[in-house]
Design goal:
Helix content: 25-40%
Strand content: 25-35%
Radius of gyration: 17 Å
Number of helices: 8
CATH class: Alpha Beta
Number of strands: 14
Shape: globular
Strand order of the largest sheet: 6-5-4-3-2-1-14
Structural class: alpha/beta
Order of helices and strands: EEEHEHHEHEEEEEEHHHEHEE
CATH topology: Metallo-beta-lactamase, Chain A
Distance between the termini: 11 Å
Length: 256
């Protein structure tokens, strides 16, 4: 399995899990022509697309996916916010509902963001194992039986987790006049900080995790090299900062 990153920022987000035979798209915030090129024009391999929430950098181009008869999976709140709830290709999935998309198995879970019904996802495939995908969330609270309040995810093999900003950089930008306090306040309430990302990772059983990918870093409120070095040091894992156009090869359950 390869992980193809087409975009991972406020300018647009799109990730593709692709093994050459079938592909799952996560987020539709990038023009489809770029998806097509990254797929070497083999768009028939796309078995579906999942969308975390309705904001434009994650869902702006969903219409093109539907025009090309690619099934879309998202929450009812997101579908209604996008005005696509009546489309037969749109599957409105519920919190903790396990859905099959080709050989992929996807379980959505609620996250904390200023959107109608935002989701993170646990994504499983025989080749890549179980992947945690979470972006645009202040923090994670995953309850596998709906009556717990924990942040442990079972059986992880790979992780894509938002690491949007660091508090000291954010505050320095406010003082310097580079960032309006209202925007900074929204960022704090709706995005995952470096500290929260780090703490969440350290709560997990990382023994079977091969890759940690830090996603959706802020252009002005993050330091990619420092974030990567710190998370590598505390986890002992291979850590990558997502960049547009990047492909991570052998994004598998085992490293060999």
């Amino acid at each position: 399995m390869d992980l193809k990153i087409i975009g991972s920022s406020s300018k647009g987000n799109c990730y593709i899990f692709d093994n050459g035979e079938e592909a799952l798209v996560v987020e539709c915030g990038i023009p489809f022509n770029r998806v097509r090129r990254k797929m070497d024009f083999k768009i028939k391999h796309i078995v579906g697309a999942v969308i975390s929430h309705e904001h434009g950098d994650h869902a702006k181009h969903v219409g093109k996916f539907l025009e090309l008869f690619i099934p879309v999976y998202t929450s009812r709140g997101t579908a209604m916010s996008l005005g696509i709830e009546g489309n037969a290709l749109v599957h409105q999935v519920a919190d903790h509902e396990l859905v099959a998309i080709g050989k992929f198995r996807v379980m959505p879970f609620r996250v904390e963001h200023d959107a109608a019904e935002p989701f993170g996802f646990l994504i499983h495939h025989p080749e890549m194992g179980t992947v945690l995908f979470a972006t645009d969330t202040r923090y994670l609270r995953y309850a596998p039986f709906k009556n717990e309040n924990i942040i442990k995810f079972p059986g992880l093999n790979n992780i894509l987790l938002e690491c949007n900003y660091r508090h000291d950089i954010l505050e320095a930008n406010i003082v310097a006049g580079r960032l309006h306090p209202a925007m900074a306040n929204r960022t704090k309430k709706s995005h995952c900080s470096f500290a929260e990302c780090r703490a969440t990772l350290l709560e997990q059983d990382l023994s079977a995790v091969n890759n940690i990918v830090l996603i959706h870093l802020s252009d002005g409120n993050a330091n990619a090299s420092e974030f990567q070095a710190d998370i590598e040091a505390v986890t002992g894992k291979t850590v990558t900062v997502a960049e547009s156009g990047m492909t991570i090869k052998n994004f598998n359950k085992t490293p060999f």
